[in-house]
Amino acid sequence: MPPDTDASASPPQTFAELVKAMRSRRLTPSQQRIASYVLADPEGVAFMTISELASVTQVNEATIVRFAGALGVPGYPGLVRLCRQQLRDEAQLVRRFDSGSGLTFTQGVDLPAVLQLEQANIARTFARVDADTFTEAREALAHAPRVHVLGLRKCHSVAYLASYLLGLVRSEVQLITPSTGTLVEQLGRINEGDAMLAVSVHRYSRDTVLGVEHARATGATCISLTDNASSPLARLSQHTFLVDGASQSMLRSMTAFTALVQALVFEVGRSLGTEARRHLEQEELLLGRLGVYYDLDVPSPGIAAPDLANDL
After folding, report:
1. What b/e readout covers 113-141, taking b as 16+ CB neighbours within 10 angstroms?
2. Residue 77 C-alpha from the chain's centroid
3. Same domain (yes/no): 95, 134
4. Domain check: are 165 and 269 in the same one?
5. In this predicted model, which residue has the larger pLDDT, 274 or 237?
6. How many domains does the chain have?
7. Which domain CATH number covers 27?
8. Is the per-residue pLDDT at 312 higher than 70?
9. First to last CA, the chain
10. Within a domain: residue 10?
11. Average pLDDT, integer, range 199-203
12. Does residue 142 share a domain with residue 225?
C-alpha cells in the first residue's frame, strides 16, 4: 500500500516538522526503516551520501528519494538539509537548554527511557567499530613511546579518564591541559612515533583540532573519538571512532565515549600483558606507601572509635 500523503500539507521546514511528518504518515516497511534511522541518528544522516544511507538501511536509492517525496521534502538533499539544521540547532547551548526545559517527567517512565537511550548510544557506537581500526589503535596506545591525550570542555572528562586509565597500565602518558597556558610547551613534547588520543564533539574545540594537526604533522599516530565523519578530527586522524551522544536534554551524552575508552584501555592492558601487570603492581605499592586511600581499619587521629554499646 502506498504511503499516505497530504497534498495540502506544507513541506517540513525544520527537523521537528520532519519528525512530525514521519510519525503521522503511513509508510511502507522500507520507508519505516529509513525513518527509524533518521530519527535515531540525524547527525549521521547529515553527512551521509544517499548510497551510504541506502546501504545502512538496506534499501535502494530510489526508495530514499520516494521516502523524501512522501514527506514533502525536495529529494535527498532536502532531507540532508533538515538533518544538518538539527545539528546546528543542537550545537547551540541555549537551544539545547530550551529543548530540555520543555521535557515533562512522569513517575516510572522517564528513567527507563533515558537508560534505553544510553543503551542505544553504546550499542550503535560499538556496532560500527571496525575491528582493524580497533586493533591498530590499541597497538598504537600500547606500544608508542609516549601517549598524549587531549580533550577540552565537556570532552575533558573523557580525556582525563583515558589518561588516568592508560597511566595505570603503561608509562609515559601525558594529559594535555591548555588551561595552564602551556599548550605550546605540551605540544612540543610530541615526537614522531608517539600516539595522540583526542576527543571532541560538535562544536569542535579549536585547540583540540590544532593539537591533532600538530601531532599528525610531527609523525604521531592520531586516534580520535568524535561524533560524525565530517569532524575535523576524523579528517586528520589515522584511526577514528564515531561515537553516539544522543540525549533527551540540552546535555550531550558522554556515556558511549566512556564505555569505548574503557574498552580500549582494557585491551591495551591485555596487549601489554606482564608489562601492564608490573606497572599496576608498582602503582599499588606507591599508593600504599603514600597512604593515598582511607584505611577503614585504622581510626583517624583524634577521632575516638564509636561506642557501639550505646547503640544497643
Report:
1. eeeebbeebbebbbeeeeeeebeebbebb
2. 26
3. no
4. yes
5. 237
6. 2
7. 1.10.10.10
8. no
9. 75
10. no
11. 88
12. yes
One domain for residues 200 and 242: yes
Distance, CA of 123 to CA of 53 (rounded, Å): 19
HEC per residue, the chain: CCCCCCCCCCCCCCHHHHHHHHHHCCCCHHHHHHHHHHHHCHHHHCCCCHHHHHHHHCCCHHHHHHHHHHCCCCHHHHHHHHHHHHHHHHHCHHHHHHHHHCCCCCCCCHHHHHHHHHHHHHHHHHHCCCHHHHHHHHHHHHHCCCEEEEECHHHHHHHHHHHHHHHHHCCCEEECCHHHCCHHHHHCCCCCCCEEEEECCCCCCHHHHHHHHHHHHHCCEEEEEECCCCCHHHHHCCEEEECCCCCCCCCCCCHHHHHHHHHHHHHHHHHHCHHHHHHHHHHHHHHHHHCCCCCCCCCCCCCCCCCHHHHC
**Same domain for 175 and 265?**
yes
169: containing domain? 128-290
Question: CB neighbours of 70 closer than 8 A, spacing ≥ 6?
Answer: 3, 5, 25, 27, 31
In a domain, 303, yes or no: no
> Per residue in 113-140, pLDDT tens?
677 778 888 888 888 888 899 999 999 9
Domain for residue 8, yes or no?
no
d(CA 225, CA 233): 8
As given in the structure block, the three cell numbers for residue 35 are 525513518
Residue where the block lists cell 588551561: 179
Rounded Cα–Cα distance for residues 272 and 46 (Å): 39
| Cβ atoms 199, 225 nearer than 8 A | yes
175, 285: one domain: yes
Q: What is the pLDDT of residues 103-113, one digit of tens each?
A: 444 444 455 66
In a domain, 110, yes or no: no
